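Let us practice reading a record.
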Amino acid sequence: MNSPSPGVLRVAALELETLPTEAISRLKLDMVADGLGQPVRMPLLVARGRRPGPVLGITAAVHGNELNGIPVIHRLLAELNLSRLRGAVVAAPVVNVPGLLEQRREFNDDRDLNHLFPGRADGTGAQVWARRFVDRVMGSLDYLVDLHTASFGRVNSLYIRANLSKPVVSSMARLQNPQIIVHNPPADGTLRGAASAMGIPAITIELKDPHRFQRGIIKQSVLGIRRLMANLEMLPPARIPAVNEPPVICRRSYWIYTPVGGLLTVLPELTQRVEAGELIARVTDIYGELIHEHYAPEAGVVIGKSVNPVAQTGARLLHLGLVGEPEV
């Protein structure tokens, strides 16, 4: 196991070349000030190998309640043999520091940080945070893996959103050995989209469920990232299990919403195939009377679903993936 460099270094921006090789540096990155004028800083972990090579960025907790990515980063770095590492890993275990401290998805100004990238220097608190992360960290990266989970009241399969029209991005996604890959060119203010606009190949990995650590999925994700690093020749390929079962490829996906409010039961399981017209959910009123049945509008695979029984009109019901290779 590697021993981190002693102490934590305060920095105004990531300057990779100033950090020691064959070491893991612990940084606190200046970001904003709180209402008392006190600094709010983002933690960074940077592992530099002995030899030059690619720089892989790994981000977690862009949504403050999506936690599985944090121990993925910790475990990955703890297992690295720095003498055999080429290049560097730049890891942000918590991008949304205010959201994590309040145990909530959003930034502390009620904005979804992952729809605000690349941010604005003169914008809201969340926009400024996003802009400064892009300016102070992203320019050092050659590749990006952004780790997420489902949010409160929902569960996900292990799936990846990636622009499969980009061969490098497609390879990054398939090396993770997910259950499902959704073709999803980023165009909605995500961190992945900001990276892509900067020419950084990027994928988003959805690591199951929110607000918890899930040991099996953490282990699988570490193996997937190590497999990617071996493919990038950052690590030797020995003793990294190969991809066995191919993922289900979806040309696109969308959420289905309930048109009525009440007590919701979603019937299919994650990764289950459903047919057009198949019963997928029931809604009852508080007296236990059935008030609505929802049927699949078309055939597909269940990527994620709601597990919160209390659903008002317009609540998310089921994330449906349309199976098939995209036209790229």
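A brief commentary: The chain has two domains: 9-231, 251-323.
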